[in-house]
Design brief:
- The chain starts with a helix and ends with a helix.
- It is built from 9 helices and no strands.
- It is elongated.
- α2 runs antiparallel to α3 and α7 runs antiparallel to α8.
- By secondary structure, it is an all-alpha fold.
Amino acid sequence: ALKYAVQISEKQVKSNNMARIYSVFANNIAENKAVPLNLDSLLYYRKKSYSFGNQISGKGNAKAFVLIQATSIGRAYLMKKNYDSAKYYFDLSLNLSEENQLEKYAVEIYMGYGEINIAKNKLQNAISNYKNALSIALRTKNIQNIRICNQKLAKLYDEVGDTENAKNYFKEFTHISDS
């Protein structure tokens, strides 16, 4: 597929195809459980995909692919514990989300910010990030992310000693998990 995609003369079509091919390469690396995850290779292909995707013109859903790639790059940097780079890509994602009215994708971005703040032991900031993520997940009716956010908030509130909020969010988490 790559051999043929590089030969496409129309820039938009070529960029679209190249972005998707490199995304598939990255997904194959991420999902291959037979070998240890190579984060450097994953980042290489995610960045290639992002770079080609960024050349595609358009607004709104046309930019969703680029936003997802930027968020995925941020997640990979989180796994490498490179928090500044993770934040940089989450910031890019959040800007794309806001510029293109792609709110449903912002949940993952705020959860990424939350993970950065947890790693830096800034638990109040992480609580704020997860509350933002939960608010969006509720508006977009994303049950999986609602469950994840409630679980994280319960744990975070427990860690800061706020047992009342910890209990409330844990109750919501178990209610959704039991549904």
